[in-house]
Design a protein that fits this description.
- The complex is a heterotrimer.
- Chain B is an alpha+beta fold.
- Chain B has helices at about 35-50, 65-80, and strands at about 5, 15-20, 25-30, 55-60.
- Chain B has a four-stranded mixed sheet.
- In chain C, the strands form two sheets. An eight-stranded parallel barrel of chain C has the order 1-2-3-4-5-6-7-8, surrounded by five helices. A two-stranded antiparallel sheet of chain C has the order 9-10.
- In chain C, strand 4 (about 85-90), helix 4 and strand 5 (about 110-115) form a beta-alpha-beta unit.
- Classes of the chains: A alpha/beta, B alpha+beta, C alpha/beta.
- Chains in contact: A-B, A-C, B-C.
- The interface of A and C includes residues 237, 238, 429, 430 and 465 of A.
C-alpha cells in the first residue's frame, strides 16, 4: 500500500464516525528470563526481524541515552523497515536520526518530534509515515490493538531482581514513568534498560510480571540533560503581561476558587501563570483539589504549602518533582491512559476545571497548531494538548500575538492538532478573544476591564503591525499524519515550504 | 570598495549592506520572505527613494524586522557609505 | 499623567515596537546614554522611522537627544524636525543649554537636571517658560558632586526639593531620578515614596518591571480616593446650604482643600478609577 492509500483507510475526524476503542487483552506474562550487560544476548532473546516495531518512552527527555544505545546495537543487525514508537523524540536522539537517514526506518509513531529527526521526516527520509498521537491517543492505540509493539525498550532508573522498576530511585531518577505503562502491559516483549540494580525498591512503578529481560548499562542518560526541555518562568515583559492578563481572565471567569483543578503547559508563560495563580490562591486562602500533567517545582511548592490536595503526575519536569513524588503520598504518578485515554473509564483530563496551553498558530475558528511552524516544518506535536483541551471545562491558549514578524493568529492554521470547538479563550498581549460558543465566559469577561475583542479583531491588530502575510498553500507531498486522541485523522504533515 | 552597513541579525531586526554600483540591485534574504517579500521590498525601495543618490546595490539580511526598521537600516547604511 | 517615563534604547527595534505594551505614561526613546557612539546614526534613523508609524499612541513620546556640546546634537534635532514627538528631553540641562535648544526647536522640552550647575539653575529653567517639565538624574549629579550614594537617599534631598518646589511654582511636572537596582522592587517603592513626599508626580523608569510599582505609588491610593470622595460630597452638600468653611472628620474644609480633593479624584480617574 502506498502512503496515500494507508492514510485513506484511517477514519477522519469531523467526517467519519468515532471508532470503537475495544481494550485488548494484556501481553502474556512469561516471567523475567534474562538479566544481562550484553546487548547482543538481549537482542538475540527478543529475535529482531524486518518490519518489527520497537518502542521507547521519553521520560529522560533530551538526556536520554537508552534509545541511542538500543538503536545503535539494533543498527548492527541486518534489520530493515524498522517501525519506532517513541512517545517523544528529542534532538539528542541521534541513533534514530542515523537509522532514518540510512533509509531503515519505515514508520515513526510519536507524540512530539523536534530536532534533526523532525527535519529528516520533512525531507521524506522515512520509507513510511510519521504518525503523531496525543498522549492519551498513544495509550489508546496501544491498548486497543491499533499500534502493536513487538519489543518495548523501557528506561528504568532502578530495577530489582524480579524485574520491577522504580522511577524515583537510581543514578538517573526521572520520576513518573506514565508514558511507559501501555508499552509495559501490551508490548509482546518488554526489556527494561537500567543502570541501577537494587535489592529493594522504595516503590514499584513498573510491575516486573510484564518484564521479559533487563539490560544493564553504565548509564541510561545524562543527569543534566534529564531536566532539559523545561523552560524557566518567562522574564520577558511581554510574556509576563500575558501571564498577568491570564490570571485576571481566570479570576473574572470565576475559576480561581476553592476545590479548583488545574493544568498548565511547560512554556515560560504557563509557568508564570502558575506562579500568579498560586499567589492569588494564597491571598484568598484557597485550596485546590489537584493539579495534573507535567510537574515542576511550582506545583510541588503548592502541594507542600497546602494550596493543593493532590498532584497527578504523568511526567516530572525537574528534580524537585522527582523528589516530591518519592516522598509525598499526595503526589501521585499516573499512566498516560489514566491521564488522558478516552478508552479509560475516567481520565483525569475530564476532571480539569481549566487548562492553560500554548500554540504555534491559532486561527479564526480557534483551531490550534502545536505540531508545525508556519512553513509546515515539524517542530512538535500535540503531547497532551488535544487531550486536555477536550477534557477541561475551560481551555485557555496563551501566546504572543506576533513572534518575530509572524502573526500567531491566522486565517487558517497550517496544521490542526486541536480543533477549535475545544478551545475557549485566547489571551495575547494585544487582546483577549472568546470563542462564540461560550457566551457565558464572554459575558463574565466583558464585565471586567480586560481588553476583550473578537478573534477577527486580533487578526486585524496583528496585520496592522506586521503587514498582511501572503497566504501560502502547503506542499502536496505528505510525510505524516496527525491523529486525534480517538484515533481519527485530523490533519496531515507535509514537506515544509522552503524559500 | 566602500561599504555601508547598519542593523543587526537579532530577532525583529535586519542588517543592510550597501555599496555603490553601476545599477540598482536589491537582494533580500529573509526568514519570513515567503510571507512578506513584497512589503520588505517596498520598505527597501522607500529608503532608496528617500536617500536619493546611488545607484546602490543593497543586500538585506532580515530576521523579521517591520517595515520601519528595514527603511531605517537601509537609510543608515547609505548614510554610512558617505561617512 | 506623567507618573512613569520609561527609557527605551533607540537602537533596538524589538524593544521599541513592544513599548506600547508596557503601559508607561510616556516612552523616552533614548539617543544618548543607552546608545553606543557607533550606533548613534542608526538609532536616530530608527527612532525617526518608528515615530512616523505611530498614530495617536496612548503614551506620550519623548526623545532624549544627545547633549548640546556632543557631535550628535545637530543631526538629532535636524532629524526630529520631520516627525511628531511630544517632548525632547535635554540631558545635562543648565539654563544656557535649555535656552540654546529652545532657540532651535519648537518641540516642548523636558530639562534633565543632572549636575550641580543644573540644580542651581532650576529656578531659572522653571521660570523661563521654555520647558514643560524637569527631570532629575541622580547618577550624574552624584558624580558631579563627588558624593556617595546613601541608603536613605539623604544626599539627594536638597536637589529633589529644589526641583519639586520650582516645578510646583511654575506649574511644570517634576520627574524623579530612576531607581537603578532593577532587581530591588522594595527599594524602588521606598524611593518612589520619598520622591512623592517631596512633591514629585512621577519617576523615570529604566526597566519595564518598574512601571507598575511607580504607578501604584504615584496614583492616589484607595484610602486617599475614598477620603477625597467624602470631602467632595460634604463640600457639595455644604455649598447648597451656603456654608463656605466647615469642620469635617476632624479637619477644616475650605475651598482649597475641596479643590485639592477634586484634583485627587481627577487624578484617580485618569489612572483608571471608576466611581
Amino acid at each position: 500500500m502506498t502512503n496515500a492509500e494507508r492514510l485513506s483507510k484511517i477514519p477522519r475526524y469531523g467526517v467519519d464516525a468515532l471508532p470503537a476503542s475495544p481494550i485488548q487483552p494484556e501481553k502474556p506474562c512469561r516471567g523475567l528470563a534474562l538479566m544481562s550487560r550484553d546487548i547482543d544476548k538481549i537482542l538475540d532473546f527478543v529475535t529482531p526481524r524486518d518490519g518489527m516495531t520497537v518502542s521507547f518512552h521519553h521520560h529522560l527527555r533530551n538526556g536520554d541515552q537508552v534509545m541511542n544505545q538500543v538503536l545503535h546495537a539494533l543498527a548492527k543487525r541486518p534489520i530493515a523497515d524498522l517501525n519506532v514508537a517513541a512517545s517523544s523524540v528529542f534532538p539528542n536522539y541521534t541513533a534514530l536520526f542515523d537509522l532514518i537517514e540510512a533509509g531503515r526506518v519505515h514508520d515513526l509513531y510519536a507524540n512530539y518530534v523536534n530536532g534533526p529527526v523532525a527535519d529528516a521526516i520533512g525531507h521524506k527520509r522515512l520509507t513510511g509515515l510519521c504518525f503523531l498521537h496525543t498522549h492519551g491517543g498513544r495509550a489508546r492505540a496501544i491498548e486497543c490493538g491499533e499500534l502493536k509493539i513487538d519489543v518495548a525498550f523501557l528506561a528504568a532508573p532502578s530495577v530489582d531482581s524480579f524485574g520491577n522498576a522504580c522511577g524515583t530511585a537510581g543514578k538517573n531518577a526521572c520520576g513518573s514513568l506514565g508514558y511507559a505503562d501501555s508499552d509495559l502491559r501490551y508490548a509482546d516483549k518488554v526489556v527494561l534498560v537500567t543502570d541501577t540494580v537494587m535489592d529493594t525498591l522504595p516503590r514499584i512503578d513498573l510491575d516486573g510480571r510484564y518484564v521479559d529481560a533487563v539490560w544493564i548499562v553504565d548509564s541510561i542518560g545524562e543527569a543534566e540533560g534529564i531536566v532539559s526541555g523545561t523552560t524557566r518562568i518567562t522574564r520577558d515583559p511581554v510574556g509576563l503581561a500575558i501571564a498577568r492578563t491570564t490570571l485576571e481572565v481566570l479570576d473574572s471567569c470565576g475559576l480561581i476558587q476553592n476545590r479548583l483543578s488545574m493544568q498548565t503547559g511547560a512554556g515560560g508563560i504557563s509557568l508564570a501563570v502558575t506562579e500568579f495563580v498560586k499567589s492569588r490562591m494564597k491571598e484568598r486562602g484557597l485550596v485546590g483539589r489537584f493539579a495534573s500533567g507535567g510537574i515542576t517545582k511550582s506545583y510541588v511548592d503548592m502541594l507542600e504549602e497546602g494550596l493543593l490536595e493532590r498532584i497527578y503526575d504523568v511526567q516530572c519536569f525537574d528534580l524537585d518533582a522527582v523528589a516530591s513524588l518519592a516522598r509525598n503520598p499526595n503526589h501521585i504518578a499516573m499512566s498516560a491512559a489514566q491521564y488522558a485515554g478516552i478508552h479509560h473509564p475516567h481520565p483525569i483530563v475530564d476532571d480539569l476545571d481549566f487548562v492553560i496551553l500554548g500554540a504555534t498558530e491559532i486561527d479564526r475558528e480557534f483551531n490550534v497548531n502545536v505540531a508545525t511552524d508556519s512553513f509546515g516544518k515539524l517542530i512538535g506535536g500535540s503531547g497532551g494538548h488535544a487531550d486536555t483541551a477536550e477534557g477541561a471545562k475551560v481551555t485557555i491558549i496563551t501566546t504572543q500575538l506576533i513572534k518575530g514578524r509572524l502573526p500567531i493568529v491566522k486565517d487558517r492554521v497550517t496544521t490542526i492538532t486541536t480543533p477549535g470547538k475545544n478551545v475557549d479563550i485566547l489571551v495575547t498581549e494585544r487582546g483577549v478573544a472568546v470563542h462564540p460558543q461560550r457566551p457565558d465566559l464572554l459575558e463574565k469577561l466583558k464585565a471586567s476591564n480586560l481588553d476583550v475583542v473578537t478573534i477577527d479583531e486580533l487578526l486585524t491588530r496583528a496585520h496592522a503591525l506586521t503587514g498582511t502575510p501572503r497566504a501560502i498553500p502547503r506542499n502536496t507531498d505528505v510525510v505524516g499524519a496527525v491523529l486525534y486522541r480517538d484515533g481519527r485523522l485530523i490533519d496531515t504533515i507535509h514537506t515544509p515550504i522552503t524559500l | 570598495m566602500k561599504i555601508g552597513i547598519a542593523g543587526s541579525l537579532e530577532s525583529c531586526d535586519c542588517r543592510a549592506t550597501v555599496t555603490l554600483a553601476p545599477a540598482e540591485s536589491i537582494q533580500i534574504q529573509s526568514a519570513v520572505g515567503a510571507f512578506f517579500h513584497d512589503q520588505i521590498l517596498a520598505a527597501v525601495k522607500k529608503a532608496l527613494a528617500e536617500a536619493g543618490g546611488g545607484p546602490y546595490a543593497v543586500k538585506l539580511e532580515d530576521k523579521g524586522a517591520y517595515d520601519y526598521a528595514i527603511t531605517a537600516r537601509v537609510l543608515s547604511a547609505i548614510r554610512r557609505l558617505s561617512e | 499623567m506623567k507618573r512613569s517615563l520609561l527609557f527605551i534604547p533607540g537602537h533596538r527595534p524589538a524593544q521599541m515596537q513592544t513599548a506600547d505594551l508596557l503601559k508607561a505614561d510616556a516612552i523616552v526613546f533614548d539617543l544618548e546614554d543607552a546608545v553606543d557612539p557607533t550606533e548613534k546614526t542608526a538609532a536616530r534613523e530608527l527612532v525617526v522611522q518608528f515615530l512616523s508609524t505611530l498614530k495617536q499612541p496612548a503614551f506620550s513620546t519623548v526623545v532624549r537627544i544627545n547633549a548640546l556640546d556632543s557631535p550628535y546634537f545637530e543631526a538629532d534635532w535636524n532629524a526630529l524636525k520631520k516627525v511628531a514627538v511630544d517632548y525632547l528631553m535635554v540631558p545635562k540641562a543648565t539654563i544656557e543649554t535649555i535656552k540654546s535648544v529652545a532657540a532651535l526647536t519648537s518641540i516642548p522640552l523636558i530639562a534633565l537636571v543632572e549636575s550641580a550647575k543644573g540644580v542651581i539653575d532650576v529656578d531659572a529653567i522653571a521660570s523661563s517658560g521654555l520647558v514643560r517639565g524637569i527631570a532629575f538624574g541622580a547618577e550624574d549629579y552624584r558624580l558631579d558632586m563627588r558624593i556617595e550614594r546613601q541608603a536613605d537617599a539623604s544626599e539627594l534631598a536638597y536637589a529633589r526639593a529644589r526641583i519639586a518646589v520650582a516645578c510646583k511654582a511654575y506649574d511644570l511636572f517634576a520627574v524623579d531620578t530612576p531607581w537603578i537596582d532593577t532587581y530591588d522592587d522594595a527599594g524602588l517603592r521606598t524611593d518612589a515614596k520619598r520622591a512623592k513626599a517631596q512633591g514629585f508626580r512621577g519617576k523615570l523608569c529604566i526597566h519595564p518591571g518598574q512601571v507598575t510599582i511607580v504607578h501604584e505609588v504615584f496614583s492616589p491610593s484607595k484610602d486617599e480616593i475614598q477620603k477625597a470622595k467624602r470631602i467632595v460630597e460634604a463640600w457639595n452638600q455644604k455649598q447648597k446650604e451656603g456654608v463656605g468653611v466647615f469642620r469635617f472628620e476632624n479637619k477644616m474644609i475650605d475651598k482649597p482643600v475641596a479643590m485639592q480633593a477634586l484634583a485627587v479624584l481627577e487624578e484617580a480617574k485618569q489612572a483608571g478609577w471608576r466611581d
